[in-house]
Design a protein that fits this description.
By secondary structure, the chain is an alpha/beta fold. The chain folds into two domains: 82 residues, Arc Repressor Mutant, subunit A; 149 residues, Dinitrogenase iron-molybdenum cofactor biosynthesis domain (Nucleotidyltransferase, domain 5, 2-Layer Sandwich). Helix content is 28%, strand content 24%. The strands form two sheets. Strands 1, 5, 6, 7, 8, 9, 10 and 11 form an eight-stranded mixed sheet that branches. It has a three-stranded mixed sheet with strand order 2-4-3. Strand 6 and strand 7 form a beta hairpin.
């Protein structure tokens, strides 16, 4: 089995980009591709002026890897400028992007969620990190195809801060999702529907799984902290063959 690509952490939202000679239709241009993480390496090195070691730390790779990424990107850009070709920024290894962050019990998208101040957090520890597949503020019903995760740090039954991470190329990637969530210190995953292969892969990594969860993501995490969500399994009703992908 091929070794899964290591995820890279981006600090700017990538978005596909195409740059080419003025006045030439895109369909007529030869295209040279630069990946999202290569563009991020150039941004860190040349716009922020950080060292290769610091750029590597922020990307989640080694400094030597950053050097190779930047060298390749420079070569592609130079060839495009000299040969009247286009540069296309897209794809690359698995990446994650910090989309938004909130603190003091706020929803990452700016909504505030009420908390039952009288509830006791008896069964849960004082502090815990919980992940939720995220879609427009709610729990995404289809875990395997989610394009974002909310990672919430909780204390005393409340969400202290929550960060939304957009994932690139991780859909149905069991090892990639598990590795990313482990890196964030996640202990518990709240989800809607989840296929059996994904459940098995996550359990093997030591995560506590709670399926069948619905509604606003922050409220779901707080309900979990109050002991209101029971642990149970759920199969995903999304039938497009996604559970046959990489384990």
């Amino acid at each position: 089995m091929a070794r899964p690509a290591k995820w890279r952490c981006l600090e700017c939202h990538p978005g596909s980009k195409l740059f080419g000679p003025v006045g030439v239709p895109a369909r007529q241009l030869d295209k040279l591709r630069i990946s999202f993480d290569e563009l991020e390496a150039l941004r860190l090195l040349h716009l922020e002026g950080v060292t290769q070691a610091e750029a590597g730390r922020r990307l989640g790779v080694s400094g030597s890897t950053v050097s190779r990424m930047a060298e390749r990107a420079h070569r592609m850009i130079t060839e495009a400028l000299v040969s009247d070709k286009a540069v296309c920024v897209e794809g690359g290894p698995v990446t994650v992007v910090r989309v938004s962050e909130s603190v003091n019990n706020g929803d990452p998208e700016g909504r505030q969620t009420p908390v039952d101040e009288g509830a006791e957090n008896v069964e849960r520890g004082d502090r815990m990190i919980v992940a939720v597949p995220y879609l427009q503020g709610n729990v995404n019903a289809h875990f395997g195809s989610t394009q974002a995760f909310m990672v919430a740090e909780t204390a005393d039954g409340k969400v202290e801060n929550a960060t939304v991470w957009e994932v690139q190329g991780m859909q149905h990637n069991h090892a990639g999702i598990a590795g990313f969530l482990k890196e964030q210190g996640v202990e518990v995953i709240l989800a809607g529907g989840m296929g059996a292969p994904m459940q098995q892969a996550l359990k093997m990594q030591g995560f506590e799984l709670y399926c069948g969860v619905q509604g606003p993501a922050v409220a779901a995490v707080e309900a979990f902290c109050r002991g209101e969500i029971e642990q149970r399994e759920s199969t995903c009703g999304h039938h497009h063959g996604e559970h046959e992908h990489q384990h």
